[in-house]
């Protein structure tokens, strides 16, 4: 090796590793210890209390509400998004039937891909603010109710953000709205790598669009769907910005729209219960890890081997 | 919708359709209903995606009265005054400047340090190489919320360090930029390591033979060669940093130091359903413009970069 290699390697590694360890890795390690203390953050005293915070969490009804909501986000958002994403992606990439049976997307696919993807590059804060007003009462300029009455569906108008029943479902809709475009593009990339002659053969065999999708497209993009699913599950655990902006730091009316991320933020920065906040954080870590591992295992087993 | 989109069931039908098409140029035959339905859904989703954004832009030009009485109508005139109020009275201007400062710093640091680390990890053999690489990778799956509380204290405590403490601590641009940098390291190192590995080693070897130092090799040869990867990742990180919400919420607690996304969120929370809606929407449009411009200019690259982020 060339002279001076080690000093060079060291000099190049020190800044990235230093910043990473200091601001990201060490907080994770500390969080686990803090979760076992009664630290308020304001005082120097930091008593070790073992698993008391976890017991308190178990008895905290609000945490259960948040947990239930996180589970709804975790199941419903990915299912909706995958369904819509796969449908739109197959329409845009192999849905068209050109002359001489060429396999293409429907007309305007490239424009749709640009438009659909746009919510993905928007800040979640913008999305939150925007939809807070979409779902607002008509008297405050909310357009959803306005649109519903305009098309004669007055019966469906409600105070979307005023009724505990709807809160988490509003969050589900907003999240799905902002996720779909990304998965359309992701699945599009996977579908474009499928050889066109497979489709031509299916077409000659007289396979319908639905059969082609089920027997050809889906098995061949399954790997991507699987990765996308895990990625989305991690994303769906969050929901912080949307809930925090649309429903406020208490998770809306009766705290019915609460999620774990907001509960952590509230415990730490509104009630100065840092130990408790860290414990909720550990719960979130455990959940995320469990879900990632679970999804991987279940999906791997169902994997379709083709080609 | 057109003849190019219908379904072909069997050759006989194809023939029938072809004849039909000849009779009625530009019209489709069987399977048209399904095609139409599908196109309908595509269009509907297109509308669902764009309408809220168009509505926001339209609202930003209305008077507050118009917004309240006729939220869906067109603005009667262009109230540029809304933007002026948002920029100064609602402090969006200050937040915008804060965002620009922080993102400029964090993007520079992320790309420089990320490239340095990735380059060394990709092209140099030394003990601990794998360990450090996987150390970075591990950060990809950790939920940010767990780190929130201790990170707050780390940042607060760095503010107490003598001499340099005045540049760090809570409400400091540099601290927030460093936190962004740290949280971007896992993916940046991951992506760029893969990228540096693909670069041909012949050029690097030629450089070494010519007596190029390690530093010169990196800055003069490898970095320019890695430009496509660097640009893709810089776009990815720009969007991530510009749109960040929870990290600044914790670190920038002082009103004047808020970044754009955070300032907008607070503004929306404080005005509730009462006050100055159109200024809020003007603020929203101001916040939206930079990402809209970047997206329109680089949309192919951004789509490729973000989706590669999932697949790699």
Explain what you see.
Chain A has helices at about 5-35, 50-60, 60-95, 110-120, 125-135, 145-150, 165-190, 195-205, 210-235, 240-245, 260-270, 275-300, and strands at about 95, 105. Chain A is mainly α and about 300 residues long. Chain A has a single domain (about 55-300), classed as MetI-like (MetI-like fold). In chain A, strands 1-2 form a two-stranded antiparallel ribbon. The longest helix of chain A has about 35 residues, at about 60-95. The two termini of chain A are about 45 Å apart. Chain B has about 300 residues and is mainly alpha-helical. Chain B has two domains: about 20-50; about 90-310, MetI-like fold, CATH 1.10.3720. Chain B is about 75% helix and about 0% strand. Chain B contains 14 helices and no strands. Chain B is globular, with a radius of gyration of 26 Å. The two termini of chain B are about 35 Å apart. Chains A and B meet through helix 1, helix 3, strand 1, helix 4 and helix 5 of A and helix 2, helix 5, helix 6, helix 7 and helix 8 of B.
Question: Keywords for this structure?
Answer:
heterodimer, A: 307 residues, mainly alpha, MetI-like fold, two-stranded antiparallel ribbon, globular, B: 312 residues, 2 domains, 14 helices, 73% helix, 0% strand, transmembrane (chain B), MetI-like (chain B), MetI-like_sf (chain B), transport (chain B), transmembrane helix (chain B)
Please describe the topology of this protein:
The complex is a heterodimer of chains A (307) and B (312).
Chain A: H1 5-34, H2 52-58, H3 61-94, E1 96-97, E2 103-104, H4 109-121, H5 124-134, H6 143-150, H7 167-192, H8 196-204, H9 209-236, H10 240-247, H11 260-270, H12 274-301
Antiparallel strand pairs in A: 1-2
Helix pairs in contact in A: 2-12, 3-7, 3-9, 4-7, 5-10, 7-9, 7-10, 9-12, 11-12
Chain B: H1 11-23, H2 32-59, H3 64-69, H4 81-87, H5 92-123, H6 129-138, H7 144-158, H8 173-198, H9 201-209, H10 214-225, H11 227-243, H12 246-251, H13 260-271, H14 277-311
Helix pairs in contact in B: 4-14, 5-8, 5-11, 5-13, 6-8, 8-11, 9-10, 11-14, 13-14
């Amino acid at each position: 090796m060339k002279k001076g290699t080690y000093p060079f390697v060291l000099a190049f590694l020190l800044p990235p590793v230093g910043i990473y360890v200091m601001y990201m890795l060490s907080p994770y390690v500390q969080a686990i210890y803090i979760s076992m203390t009664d630290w308020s953050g304001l005082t120097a005293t930091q008593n070790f209390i073992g698993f008391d915070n976890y017991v308190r969490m178990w008895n905290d009804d609000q945490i259960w509400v948040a947990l239930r909501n996180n589970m709804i986000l975790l199941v419903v958002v990915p299912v909706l998004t995958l369904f819509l994403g796969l449908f739109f992606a197959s329409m845009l990439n192999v849905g068209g039937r050109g002359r001489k049976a060429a396999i293409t997307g429907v007309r305007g696919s490239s424009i749709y891909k640009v438009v659909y993807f746009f919510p993905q590059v928007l800040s979640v804060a913008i999305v939150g603010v925007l939809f807070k007003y979409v779902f607002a009462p008509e008297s405050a300029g909310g357009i959803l109710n306005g649109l519903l009455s305009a098309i004669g569906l007055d019966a469906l108008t409600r105070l979307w953000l005023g009724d505990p029943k709807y809160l988490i479902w509003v969050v589900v809709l907003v999240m799905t709205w902002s996720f779909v475009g990304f998965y359309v593009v992701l699945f599009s990339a996977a579908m474009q790598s499928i050889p066109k002659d497979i489709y031509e053969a299916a077409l000659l065999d007289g396979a319908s669009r639905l059969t082609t999708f089920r027997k050809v497209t889906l098995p061949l993009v399954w790997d991507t769907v699987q990765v996308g699913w895990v990625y989305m599950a991690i994303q769906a655990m969050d929901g912080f910005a949307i809930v925090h902006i649309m429903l406020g730091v208490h998770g809306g009316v009766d705290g019915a729209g609460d999620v774990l991320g907001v509960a952590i933020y509230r415990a730490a920065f509104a009630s100065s219960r840092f130990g408790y906040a860290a414990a909720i954080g550990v719960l979130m870590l455990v959940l995320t890890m469990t879900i990632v591992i679970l999804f991987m295992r279940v999906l791997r087993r169902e994997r379709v081997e083709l080609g | 919708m057109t003849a190019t989109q219908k379904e072909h069931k069997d050759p006989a039908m194809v023939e029938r359709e072809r004849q039909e098409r000849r009779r009625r140029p530009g019209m489709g035959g069987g399977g048209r209903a399904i095609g139409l339905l599908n196109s309908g859904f595509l269009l509907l989703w297109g509308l669902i995606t764009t309408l809220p954004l168009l509505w926001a832009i339209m609202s930003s030009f209305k008077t507050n009265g118009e917004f309240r009485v006729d939220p869906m109508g067109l603005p009667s005139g262009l109230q540029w005054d809304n933007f002026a109020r948002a920029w100064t009275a609602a402090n969006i201007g200050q937040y915008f400047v804060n965002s620009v400062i922080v993102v400029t710093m964090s993007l520079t640091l992320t790309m420089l340090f990320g490239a340095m680390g990735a380059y060394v990890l990709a092209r140099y053999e030394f003990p601990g190489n794998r360990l450090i690489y996987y150390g970075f990778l591990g950060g990809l799956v950790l939920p940010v919320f767990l780190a929130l509380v201790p990170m707050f204290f780390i940042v607060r405590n760095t503010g107490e360090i003598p001499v340099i403490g005045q540049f760090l601590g809570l409400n400091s641009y540099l601290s927030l930029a460093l936190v962004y940098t740290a949280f971007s390291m896992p993916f940046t190192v991951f992506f760029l390591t893969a990228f540096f590995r693909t670069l041909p080693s012949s050029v690097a070897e030629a450089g070494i033979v010519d007596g190029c130092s390690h530093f010169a090799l990196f800055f003069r040869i490898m970095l320019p060669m890695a430009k496509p990867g660097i640009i893709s990742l810089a776009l990815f990180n720009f969007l991530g940093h510009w749109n960040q919400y929870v990290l600044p919420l914790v670190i920038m607690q002082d009103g004047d130091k808020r970044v754009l996304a955070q300032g907008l969120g607070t503004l929306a929370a404080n005005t509730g359903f009462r006050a100055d809606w159109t200024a809020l929407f003007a603020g929203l449009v101001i916040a939206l413009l930079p990402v809209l411009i970047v997206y329109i200019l680089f949309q192919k690259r951004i789509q490729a970069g973000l989706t590669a982020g999932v697949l790699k």
